Amino acid sequence: MLEYFLAIDIGASSGRHIVGRWDGDKIETDEVYRFPTGVCRKDGCLEWDIDRLFECVVLGIREAFTKHPGIKCLAIDTWAVDYVLMDAENRPIKPCYAYRDLRTEKVIDEVHSIVPFETLYKKTGIQFQPFNTIYQLYADKKAGRLDKAASLLMLPEYLVYRLTGERRREYTNATATGLLSTETGDYDRDITDALGLPERFFETPVAPGTPAGTLKKGIAEYVGGNCRVAMCATHDTASSVEGMDIEGDNPYISSGTWSLLGLKVPRAITTDESLKANFTNEGGVGYIRYQKNIMGMWIINELKRDICPFLSFPEIVALAKASSFEETVDVNSETFLSPQNMKKAFDDTLTQKPSCVGDYFRCATLSLAQGYKKALEELSANTGKTFDRLFIYGGGAKNTLLNEMTQDVCGIQVVPRPVEASALGNLKVQMRAYYRNRR
Description:
Elements: E1 4-10, E2 14-22, E3 27-36, E4 40-42, E5 45-48, H1 50-67, E6 71-77, E7 83-86, E8 92-93, E9 96-97, H2 108-114, H3 117-124, H4 133-142, E10 151-154, H5 155-164, H6 171-175, H7 189-194, E11 211-214, H8 217-223, E12 228-230, H9 236-243, E13 252-255, E14 258-265, H10 272-277, E15 280-283, E16 288-295, H11 297-307, H12 313-322, H13 342-349, H14 357-383, E17 389-393, H15 400-410, E18 413-417, H16 421-438
Parallel strand pairs: 1-6, 6-12, 13-17, 17-18
Antiparallel strand pairs: 1-2, 2-3, 4-5, 5-9, 7-8, 7-10, 11-12, 13-14, 14-16, 15-16
């Protein structure tokens, strides 16, 4: 029987189940299921419907077994920073807040008054983002939610737990919490103790490739098969970078809801210059991903939703190419993080009001290219390296106008590769672990 592996790759706007098989030369893939994700706005808050998310995960596994009965292993990756609190009966404590919720705004200054950000950065190497897990947890502490919680699992870890009953804390996702020491690879107890965060939440994380059991009996019966479950690089960007085929010592952009622009480095860079540029040091599979978050296709997708949901992306690109609008915005401004209306956010920021649909999208695309240029300059300065190519992976690599503008603005050859790099990285990690353990 042919040996297949299943990558469940879940992003902030959609999830997909991709079956892979090693043919002796490359990984052949087959997308068998796709489903929308997206946040829910409820009572003024943004949250994830984790029950529906899990239901879609299981439905996709059933589709995978129906089409490819020889599945040997599966793994799940999702976005980072979000988590599920669980009570003493292992039930989720709802809501499961989404990172774009603004509840952390009130606690950030208090966190920094206890542990200055400069200290946090030196210890963890993680850039400041208002949605970092450290701020979310402190907001939950202030709200009394942690008192009810017996344990905590990051979102992909929670989904694995629901499938197998096994608890694992995985390294790449743990690094993104802003609580993991760059020196030890474990949670920094000085930080967690200073903030009064419960020690019971912080089990030592395991490496990507660690087994996590098999499907529970009831789930296996429902999906029509059983297989091993492994922890891949559960942070989707970590999986994405592992799935990239980057030539030479050149930077990458993982282009999706966010644009993650960075470089593989052997150890964390926590210099004052790095802190000032707000670069992050997140765990990879045997390396550090030294990178910067740039507001990515989120801006363009939200503009489409608010202005012209009826237009296709090729039609939008054509309108943007016909525009001559030159003003840009700072795409990393919190103004664009989670506005009620993205068009209004642009209108309130720009001095010159766009006169047509194409103006908005040219402005957004050119602004992203300018954001890439600044990040590349900072990356070069902080690493002492120069680059001749920029590799762009993911769904955003299909945006030909953005690729063209990036090449023109940055003065660098852009190599777009619109493949599902996160699914490939997910598959690579579990395949390596499976065949290594089988020997």
